[in-house]
Design a protein that fits this description.
globular; single chain; alpha+beta; two-stranded antiparallel sheet; 287 residues; four-stranded mixed β-sheet
Length: 287
């Protein structure tokens, strides 16, 4: 880590990394990506940089350019940046929270609200997200490492529950009036943004089409709530759910479904062949 203590909202610590993070902000601005702010995050050397919202494709394009730019700038400065979901079992993971809402095509207003009241579109969209989150896990948690981020009391959700401004839930309702939106806290920083956005939109629209009820709000600590339905805890589970999903096959087409089924199986097989540092430490009696 560039800094040997937790940076979260720490003014001095973020100044220590300003030579790197400042270059990233300015580089993104120069690339036409509007950056709103940056801040220290919840572990050693961990930072958060926030870009302004946009339509799904533009946001995914910016996300991709941003990741490449951060890697390049880090390399030029003699450091390394990672977007691993869980860089270390001792660390807080790195996330990619997806905030989404729908726009009325006729007048450009937020379809999730009518004044201050939440609409049926909002409720059914949320219902769709919850109903399809598990079977689309492969699109938001694409690697073996992705699932190691889902740890109790780590700010990473372990369930597909929903709540209002509740950071322990998989889906968090935030914003007021025209800014009302649904934050999906499940994806990690290793997300492919095009697949993550596609999964979000497909699930939400399916909920609207079917009139899916989101179920009751979870109040309190979702990590401790027995009724909170769990998100898959391993890539192997995510691949199995994808394989059995007629919804994924129908929403994205059978060729895409087959391609990512093969990807998921391959990713798991390659990992299973690797001898890890954990195994070496145990079997050389160094752990």
């Amino acid at each position: 880590p560039t800094i040997p203590y937790i940076l979260d909202y720490h003014i001095l610590a973020t100044t220590m990394d300003e030579q790197y993070v400042g270059a990233m902000r300015r580089g993104m601005h120069a690339a036409g990506i509007p950056i709103e702010f940056s801040k220290g995050e919840a572990w050693y050397g961990q930072h958060e940089i926030n870009m302004r919202y946009a339509d799904a494709v533009t946001a995914a394009d910016r996300h991709t350019i941003y990741k490449n730019g951060v890697k390049e700038i880090a390399f030029l400065n003699g450091i390394s940046a990672t977007f691993m979901a869980k860089p270390s079992e001792k660390d807080i993971g790195s996330s990619c929270h997806i905030h989404s809402s729908l726009q009325d095509a006729e007048n450009g207003t937020n379809a999730f609200v009518d004044g201050e009241e939440e609409t049926d579109v909002f409720r059914h969209y949320l219902g769709g997200l919850r109903a399809r989150a598990r079977e689309l896990a492969l699109f938001v948690a694409p690697s073996v490492n992705s699932y190691k981020r889902y740890a109790t009391e780590s700010w990473a959700p372990t369930s597909i529950s929903w709540g209002r401004d509740n950071r322990t839930c998989g889906f968090r309702i935030v914003g007021h009036g025209q800014s009302r939106r649904i934050e999906c806290r499940i994806p990690g920083a290793d997300l492919n943004p095009y697949l993550g956005c596609a999964a979000t939109i497909a699930a939400g629209l399916d909920g609207i089409e079917r009139g899916t009820d989101p179920g009751p709000e979870l109040k309190g600590n979702a990590y401790e709530a027995a009724e909170a339905e769990p998100f898959p805890s391993s890539l192997r589970e995510g691949v199995a759910l994808w394989e059995g999903s007629e919804f994924a096959k129908g929403a994205f087409g059978e060729p895409v479904w087959k391609h990512y089924l093969n990807y998921g199986r391959t990713e798991q097989r390659l990992f299973d062949q690797v001898v890890t540092g954990y195994e070496r430490a145990r079997m050389f009696e160094r752990g």
